[in-house]
Amino acid sequence: LRSRDGSEYLIQHDSEAIISTWHKAIAQGIQELSADLRREQESESSVDFRSSERLGSWREKEDDGRPGAAPGPGGLESDLSKVRHKLRKFLQRRPDVHVITGALKLFFRELPEPLFPFSHFRQFIAAIKLQDPARRSRCVRDLVRSLPAPNHDTLRLLFQHLCRVIEHGEQNRMSVQSVAIVLGPTLLRPETEETSMPMTMVFQNQVVELILRQCSEIFPPH
User: Fold this and answer.
1) Helix 176-187 crosses helix 97-109 at what angle (to 10 degrees)?
2) Which CATH superfamily is domain 116-222 in?
3) Contact indicator for 179, 161 with CB cutoff of 8 Å
């Protein structure tokens, strides 16, 4: 599947019939979400506009006689509150686990830079190609621990959650390999598309699979 912004998603299964069913379900879900989003934007646009007018009026009064005044520290907190509010509304209106999972994957996919930074991509690919298992594991672990703190901490929480998902594999059919295939190209991708993308994708998945299998060693409990 290729999205409008050029993002590509790989659907794999032994049965063509199941792949076709997935494709139809995804297409229907996109149509329904697009319709819901349009309705939400229409219903919120008038409220946002009136709020902006009131905010602009208030700022004009506050900034009188203060040229170049900087916004107060509450601006960032206000933006974060809006994001939390919209996320809460989304989860409440769409409690289906598949929709929520898709939204989470889309969030990580749409990040300007993936959780595994572009600067580390070739190092992870080189590490996963090492023939010696012990050295391969050690190199991947050291690379993960060298990531910037926000990336490392987010990956730790994400992989620990994914391990809990895998523990219920008999019910949700999500094995280590399945999770790695779904999230490998989303979490670890090159800055520019390479000519050997199918082979590169295999290595991306293998990196995620190794981290999942050795999660407790790579991300030891605090």
Assistant:
1) 40
2) Rho GTPase activation protein (1.10.555.10)
3) no
Look up residue 138 and give its two tokens. Answer: 């050690």
List the one residue out of 81, 93, 102 whose CA is nearest residue 7: 102
Q: Give every CB contact of residue 166 below 8 A, 6+ residues apart in sequence.
A: 174, 175, 176, 179, 212
Mean pLDDT of the chain: 79
Assign 3-state DSSP to the chain and report helix, strand, coil percentages, each to 5: 75, 0, 25
What is the Cα gyration radius of the chain? 22
What are 191-222's pLDDT values in tens digits? Answer: 987 777 778 899 999 999 999 999 999 999 87
- Mean pLDDT, rounded, for 145-156: 96
Predicted pLDDT at 64 = 47
Compare 77 and 66 and report the one with higher pLDDT: 77
DSSP 3-state of 2:
strand
Separation between Cα atoms, residue 216 and residue 166, nearest integer Å: 14
Q: How do the domains of the chain map onto residue ranges?
A: 1-64, 74-110, 116-222
Q: Report the distance separating Cα 144 and Cα 117, nearest Å.
A: 10
